[in-house]
Amino acid sequence: VARMKLVFGDLHLADIRAWREQSFSEFRCEFPLFGRDYAELAQTLFDSGARVTVSKLSDAAAEAAGDLLSTGVAYDRKLFEALQARSDVDSFGECGEFHTKVEPAP
To answer: Where are the alpha helices (DSSP H) in 10-102?
Structure first.
């Protein structure tokens, strides 16, 4: 009998990955984006034509990068590159700084 599969979008946090694997050990866990290069991921995302907006922002991120990030702002190449230049916010929000809503390309 095949085990049900869970797919996670984690990018690089090994402790979170290990927790998921342990917590969901009865499932087959996959992490297709884990360890991928950020520039490559960004290129794929922005080339896809998907519309991405910031949907949630942590208080710490608002304080650290409020000049760039706010709920409802477009998460586009310009924002990604501005966040890449910072050391206080992960440019994909991998540490919980922000969440995004992704809508497929029209």
So the answer is: 14-23, 38-48, 59-65, 77-84
